[in-house]
Amino acid sequence: MIKIIFVQCPVNLNADNMNNNISCPVDHVKVNENKIRVVALLVLLCALAYLGTGMQIIPVLLTIDFLLRSTGLEKYSVLASLAGIIANAANLKVKPVDRAPKRFAAWVGFVFMAAVCLVDILGMHTTAPVLATIVCVFAALESFVAFCAGCYVYHYGVKVLGILKNGN
Protein backbone atom coordinates (compact mmCIF):
# COMPACT_ATOMS: atom_id res chain seq x y z
CA MET A 1 0.00 0.00 0.00
CA ILE A 2 1.39 3.39 -0.96
CA LYS A 3 0.94 6.05 1.68
CA ILE A 4 0.82 9.59 0.37
CA ILE A 5 0.88 12.59 2.67
CA PHE A 6 0.57 16.24 1.79
CA VAL A 7 2.97 18.89 3.02
CA GLN A 8 3.79 22.52 2.41
CA CYS A 9 6.77 22.50 0.08
CA PRO A 10 8.94 25.38 -1.06
CA VAL A 11 9.01 25.58 -4.83
CA ASN A 12 11.64 27.56 -6.73
CA LEU A 13 9.61 29.74 -9.08
CA ASN A 14 12.32 31.57 -10.95
CA ALA A 15 16.00 32.39 -11.17
CA ASP A 16 15.64 35.00 -8.42
CA ASN A 17 15.03 32.15 -5.94
CA MET A 18 11.59 33.50 -5.06
CA ASN A 19 9.85 30.77 -3.04
CA ASN A 20 6.15 30.21 -2.47
CA ASN A 21 4.75 27.58 -0.18
CA ILE A 22 2.25 25.40 -1.95
CA SER A 23 0.82 22.06 -0.91
CA CYS A 24 1.90 19.13 -2.98
CA PRO A 25 1.63 15.37 -2.72
CA VAL A 26 4.59 13.67 -1.03
CA ASP A 27 5.20 9.94 -0.66
CA HIS A 28 8.85 10.00 0.54
CA VAL A 29 9.98 7.81 -2.35
CA LYS A 30 12.84 9.37 -4.27
CA VAL A 31 13.24 9.35 -8.05
CA ASN A 32 15.93 10.82 -10.29
CA GLU A 33 14.85 14.26 -11.45
CA ASN A 34 17.35 14.24 -14.32
CA LYS A 35 15.86 11.01 -15.69
CA ILE A 36 12.39 12.53 -15.39
CA ARG A 37 13.58 15.59 -17.29
CA VAL A 38 14.78 13.29 -20.09
CA VAL A 39 11.36 11.58 -20.07
CA ALA A 40 9.80 15.03 -20.45
CA LEU A 41 12.08 15.75 -23.40
CA LEU A 42 10.99 12.48 -25.04
CA VAL A 43 7.33 13.37 -24.40
CA LEU A 44 7.97 16.76 -25.99
CA LEU A 45 9.58 15.18 -29.06
CA CYS A 46 6.75 12.65 -29.45
CA ALA A 47 4.05 15.31 -29.06
CA LEU A 48 5.84 17.52 -31.60
CA ALA A 49 5.99 14.54 -33.96
CA TYR A 50 2.22 14.16 -33.56
CA LEU A 51 1.67 17.86 -34.22
CA GLY A 52 3.88 17.66 -37.31
CA THR A 53 2.45 14.45 -38.77
CA GLY A 54 -1.04 14.02 -37.29
CA MET A 55 -0.29 10.31 -36.78
CA GLN A 56 -2.98 9.17 -34.33
CA ILE A 57 -0.84 6.33 -32.98
CA ILE A 58 1.51 8.80 -31.26
CA PRO A 59 -1.02 10.16 -28.72
CA VAL A 60 -2.25 6.60 -28.13
CA LEU A 61 1.27 5.47 -27.25
CA LEU A 62 1.85 8.56 -25.10
CA THR A 63 -1.43 7.93 -23.28
CA ILE A 64 -0.37 4.37 -22.47
CA ASP A 65 3.07 5.52 -21.35
CA PHE A 66 1.62 8.25 -19.10
CA LEU A 67 -0.77 5.69 -17.61
CA LEU A 68 2.07 3.30 -16.82
CA ARG A 69 4.15 6.01 -15.18
CA SER A 70 1.24 7.49 -13.21
CA THR A 71 0.22 4.12 -11.75
CA GLY A 72 3.63 2.98 -10.57
CA LEU A 73 4.34 0.72 -13.53
CA GLU A 74 7.21 2.84 -14.88
CA LYS A 75 9.34 -0.27 -15.36
CA TYR A 76 7.06 -1.05 -18.32
CA SER A 77 7.24 2.51 -19.71
CA VAL A 78 9.18 2.72 -22.96
CA LEU A 79 9.92 6.40 -22.38
CA ALA A 80 11.15 5.84 -18.80
CA SER A 81 13.37 2.96 -19.95
CA LEU A 82 14.77 4.98 -22.85
CA ALA A 83 15.30 7.98 -20.56
CA GLY A 84 17.29 5.79 -18.17
CA ILE A 85 19.54 4.66 -21.01
CA ILE A 86 20.01 8.25 -22.22
CA ALA A 87 20.65 9.61 -18.70
CA ASN A 88 23.28 6.91 -18.08
CA ALA A 89 24.93 7.43 -21.47
CA ALA A 90 25.05 11.19 -20.88
CA ASN A 91 26.47 10.67 -17.37
CA LEU A 92 23.69 12.76 -15.85
CA LYS A 93 24.00 12.89 -12.07
CA VAL A 94 21.29 11.38 -9.94
CA LYS A 95 19.26 14.18 -8.39
CA PRO A 96 16.74 12.72 -5.92
CA VAL A 97 13.30 14.34 -5.73
CA ASP A 98 10.03 13.12 -4.30
CA ARG A 99 8.09 10.85 -6.63
CA ALA A 100 4.50 11.88 -5.79
CA PRO A 101 4.40 15.23 -7.63
CA LYS A 102 5.94 13.59 -10.70
CA ARG A 103 3.36 10.79 -10.63
CA PHE A 104 0.58 13.34 -10.23
CA ALA A 105 1.96 15.27 -13.21
CA ALA A 106 2.07 12.00 -15.20
CA TRP A 107 -1.59 11.45 -14.30
CA VAL A 108 -2.42 14.93 -15.62
CA GLY A 109 -0.43 14.09 -18.78
CA PHE A 110 -2.47 10.90 -19.11
CA VAL A 111 -5.72 12.88 -18.91
CA PHE A 112 -4.54 15.37 -21.53
CA MET A 113 -3.26 12.71 -23.94
CA ALA A 114 -6.42 10.61 -23.49
CA ALA A 115 -8.38 13.75 -24.35
CA VAL A 116 -6.19 14.24 -27.44
CA CYS A 117 -7.02 10.68 -28.53
CA LEU A 118 -10.72 11.15 -27.90
CA VAL A 119 -11.12 14.47 -29.69
CA ASP A 120 -8.95 13.24 -32.56
CA ILE A 121 -11.18 10.17 -32.99
CA LEU A 122 -14.25 12.42 -32.81
CA GLY A 123 -12.85 14.49 -35.67
CA MET A 124 -12.24 17.62 -33.60
CA HIS A 125 -9.09 18.35 -35.53
CA THR A 126 -8.65 21.83 -34.06
CA THR A 127 -8.97 20.82 -30.40
CA ALA A 128 -6.52 17.88 -30.52
CA PRO A 129 -3.52 20.02 -31.52
CA VAL A 130 -4.38 22.61 -28.87
CA LEU A 131 -4.35 19.95 -26.15
CA ALA A 132 -1.15 18.42 -27.55
CA THR A 133 0.45 21.86 -27.55
CA ILE A 134 -0.39 22.27 -23.85
CA VAL A 135 1.37 18.95 -23.20
CA CYS A 136 4.34 20.27 -25.20
CA VAL A 137 4.54 23.44 -23.13
CA PHE A 138 4.58 21.61 -19.81
CA ALA A 139 6.95 18.91 -21.06
CA ALA A 140 9.32 21.64 -22.25
CA LEU A 141 9.11 23.44 -18.90
CA GLU A 142 9.94 20.22 -17.04
CA SER A 143 12.69 19.22 -19.42
CA PHE A 144 14.47 22.54 -19.88
CA VAL A 145 13.97 24.38 -16.58
CA ALA A 146 12.88 21.60 -14.15
CA PHE A 147 9.50 23.26 -13.61
CA CYS A 148 6.94 20.64 -12.64
CA ALA A 149 3.41 21.97 -12.85
CA GLY A 150 2.08 19.03 -10.82
CA CYS A 151 2.34 20.83 -7.47
CA TYR A 152 0.62 23.91 -8.84
CA VAL A 153 -2.22 21.94 -10.43
CA TYR A 154 -2.64 19.99 -7.20
CA HIS A 155 -2.45 23.07 -4.95
CA TYR A 156 -4.96 25.14 -6.87
CA GLY A 157 -7.18 22.12 -7.54
CA VAL A 158 -7.40 21.47 -3.80
CA LYS A 159 -8.19 25.15 -3.21
CA VAL A 160 -10.98 25.14 -5.81
CA LEU A 161 -12.40 21.84 -4.54
CA GLY A 162 -12.22 23.14 -0.96
CA ILE A 163 -14.10 26.27 -1.95
CA LEU A 164 -16.72 24.24 -3.80
CA LYS A 165 -17.05 21.78 -0.91
CA ASN A 166 -17.25 24.45 1.80
CA GLY A 167 -19.21 26.95 -0.27
CA ASN A 168 -16.72 29.75 0.53
UniProtKB/TrEMBL annotation:
The keyword ATP-binding does not apply. The keyword Cell division does not apply. InterPro entries: DUF4395 (IPR025508). The chain crosses the membrane at residues 38-64, 76-92, 104-124, 130-154. Keywords: Membrane, Transmembrane, Transmembrane helix. Residues 31-156 form the DUF4395 domain. This is DUF4395 domain-containing protein. It comes from Mucilaginibacter gynuensis.
